[in-house]
Each structure stands twice: as structure tokens, then as C-alpha cells.
Amino acid sequence: MKQRITYLLEENDAEVGPEQIQVQDNSLSIHDLYGAKEHRVTLGLDELPQELRLVLNQCHELRIRWASQFLYAGLSPFTSRVSPGLHVFYTPRRKGHDAQICQLLGRVFGNELACESVERSFINVPILSERFSSTASFQYYSLWPSLKKFVTYVEHAVHESQQAKIRSLLDVNQLDVDCDIISHACILNAYWAEPTGNKHWKELIETKKTSGTLEVGILTNEKPLEPEELSLSGVLAVVGEDDRPKATKFSFPSRHHPVPASDLPTYFYTHIKSPAGLHPTLQLTFPSGTKSLIPPNPSCALHAHLTLPSTLLIDKYQLQDPLFLSSQRLRRLHSVAGETDLEAPNWAISRWGSAVLLELAHPSAPPSTPQDGATAGAEAGAGAETAAAAAAADWTVSIPLHLRYLEPRANASGMSAVDVPWPVVFWACAAEEGTKMGMNPFDRTNLGYDGLFGTRTMFYHVPPAVQAAALVERVPVPVLDLGRARYVELGTVVAVVVGFAWVVWKLLAVGGKEGERAQGVKGE
């Protein structure tokens, strides 16, 4: 077993005094540190419980991503994001083999997960870039709000002395689990954006010589020399080997970056346009977007990756109309995978939903529409008059969604609700010629959207607005109230009978007139 604990300090807390970190024979203590924390544990498959080994030995790779639905900051190098909830990416060792993944997920995360089998519950992951070979074959998603069942499962698998540390996972903002047959190992990554309770970190980290290596780093970001790199400096110590922390500074290439700092910070918030109806519109608003939405370099394109539950879908044919896209400040639909049947009700859908990648328009590259000379001249004159007002305007992008019919239920209000996770928004930029994406000790892959780009694509992530209470939107949905269903049934029967009687009456009336006309002709 190997462990790596990284504390990433804010820039104003970059200085670490000797009294804040103390190294002893088999322990290290820290206190009065404020910042993010990552705990990485690497286990061989033979160190896992037998029921996990039996399943994982049938997998080529199994990658799990969980993100909290509450707002958190992502400091470099932990800026990459996924939509809130549980994401599972899976590739079988043998094609068509299930490996009982759903049963494993139920035991580890909770039997309430709507997962039956890979064939019925997972969707196929599209790969637009064949060079990106590390993308898994299948994907599952659930808006899973808590890790309580996961923590309980792990507590039963570890020694009693470690259970308190395991319970700290209840407060993580991100959790990654990566298992693959090539490395014959599982890696667990837990990320806390800030100390629990918004206090300072105060921890005693202990290890035994038989427990493997344990490395602890206290780092802060430095300005890198190259745009594709991240640079960190601080102190490192291997517990049980070093008698004092050692100064360090290192750089490495990274695919994931924060948006470059500017006078106006770039962020977005999401809401459902009211009234929602059966065709809700998801709106992404970038405050002062006309000034703040500046691409990091000319090759960049703004994207949004949506993870939609089965109750919602997009109309991929609607999003192929250039004029409609322009009216919504969209540029094009890059990819859609999963359930896209426009007619199927929710109870006829077995798979979890769909994943959608959209390219968004932005002020420096607005959607283009055909114009004649007179129209262009008129718009130029109008634009000069409103330039000052437009410069400070918010930039809002609209994404049209469609609701499926939900199951009837006993509900006096006749309403239900559907939760929609916020999308991930980022600039996708081509790296400069000659850029080599080497080893990144903090790299994340299989995020649902990275495999849709080339291996030398860099992602600059736009963070959610700090005012957001939760990264989930709730959509009100009308449903049939079973308590009033008999009135609907009775009304339907009456309407059918009355309609049928009216049609018969009209047919008989026409027939009678034709008969009278025939008799009149014969009499003449």
C-alpha cells in the first residue's frame, strides 16, 4: 500500500513555519494550515476484500467519479470537474461480459441505485478521438447525494483503528476510484476543498513500517514557465524515513487548468427558465460575460457537458438547425450518447439517461447568421449606439430540454419534481505544436468529456458561481394523480362514445340524403 497526502495552500498562506509541521520517527503532525487536501491511496488487488477481487479480475478497467452537489473550490491542480453525483466508467475484460458490476455498486454505494445490469442500465461511451485510448466503454450515472453507504462499507473492511479516518470521507467534495487489470491495482483519491467546519487542518499522520510508504506534501502554486504546465513548491516528507521536511519545487504538464485571472472573474450559474412546462429551458448565465468571457487563446472553444437523467433529453434533430442554434447562442452539438427516443415515456426507459457535449457561442465568436448588405449596415449603426451597454451585459446561453411522461402517482397536487445537475463548462484549447503531455502526478481521466477531444487538448474550467447553494436545479413536472385517474378514465370513455356516436350519426345522415336523391332521380 502506498499513500500520498497533499495539502495545497492558498497564495496568502504560502509560508509554512517550522512550528506548523513536525516530523517524528513514524508520525508527522501538522496544524494551523488552511487550504485544500488530497489523500491518495494505492492498493494492490490482492489487498482488497475477496468479493471485490472476484469482480475486478473480470474488468479491464473500472473508474468511479463522485462529486458533491454543494459548491466547492477547485484549486490547481484539482480544477477538473464532473457534474454532481456518481459516475461509473467500465470496460469489461471480455466483450459482452457483465462482471456483476451493478451488484457490486449496490453493495458498496446502496441497493437503491437504479442499476440492473450493464446491458440494461449503462450507456455506450462515444469516442470522437481514437487516439485517446484510455476512455472506458460504458458509463453509468446517478445523482447520488451522499457517500454514507460507501463509508459504512469501507469501515467494515478496515481495522478499527482506521475507522475514524474513513469517516472523514463523509465530508469530501470529490472521490475517485480507479482500478485496472494492467497495473493490477486500485487507486482511491479523496479531495477536500477546505478543512472540515471551515477551520484549519490539525492532524496527526501515523504509519507503520509494514504499512507501505506514506508521503506528505505541503505545497502552493507558483507561476509556471510554460502555458501548458503547472508549477508547485513547498515541502515534502516521507513519514518513517525523513527526519525533517525537505524543500521542493517541480513543474509538470497538465490538461486541466483554471481560467486565466482577469479584472472580471469568469464564472457561471444555471437556472431553469420559468415557466418550465414540458419543454424546460436550461439557461447558463455568465455575469458580465461580454467582458469576462475571453478565450485563453484564439484556438479555444467554449463547451458545456451535460449529464441528463432519463426523465430529460435533448432533441438532437432540433440542434442541427443553424438558425435555431444561433437564436439560443449555441454553435453546435458535438456529441450525444444514451437515451434519445423522443416518444418513449420514462417508465419505458431502462438506461440512466444521456450525456451531451455542446459548443457554446461567446462574445468574441458570436453565432453567425446570413445577412444582406442593408441589414448589416443597419446593425452596425445600432451596435455603435448600444456598445457601452452591451459591454457590461450578462451573456446567457439557452439549452432546450424535453421532459418525458413520468409514472402516475398518488399525489394531490398533481406535480412531481426532477433534479438536473449543473453541467461542466470549460474552454477546450489546442496545445501548441511540440507540446508533450508527459507524466502528471495529479492527472484525472475518464471524466465523460475528455475522451471526446484529442490527447493534446487543454481544458480551462469555468467555475460555478459562489452564490450557488447547490449545483442541482429542480424542475416541477405535472403527473397523473392516481386518486383522480377514474375521472380521466370516465371522461375518456364518454369522449370516445360521444365521438363514435356523432360519426355514426353523420354517416347515417349522409346515407339517408343519398338515398332520397336516388329515389328522386328514379321517379323522374
TrEMBL record:
Transmembrane spans: 487-508
Gene Ontology cellular-component annotations: endoplasmic reticulum membrane; glycosylphosphatidylinositol-mannosyltransferase I complex
Annotated pathway: Glycolipid biosynthesis; glycosylphosphatidylinositol-anchor biosynthesis
Keyword line: Endoplasmic reticulum, Glycoprotein, GPI-anchor biosynthesis, Membrane, Transmembrane, Transmembrane helix
A single MF term (Gene Ontology): mannosyltransferase activity
GO biological process: GPI anchor biosynthetic process
Places the protein is found: Endoplasmic reticulum membrane
Task performed by this protein: Required for proper folding and/or the stability of a subset of proteins in the endoplasmic reticulum. Component of glycosylphosphatidylinositol-mannosyltransferase 1 which transfers the first of the 4 mannoses in the GPI-anchor precursors during GPI-anchor biosynthesis. Probably acts by stabilizing the mannosyltransferase GPI14.
Annotated PANTHER family: PROTEIN PBN1
Protein name listed in UniProt: Protein PBN1
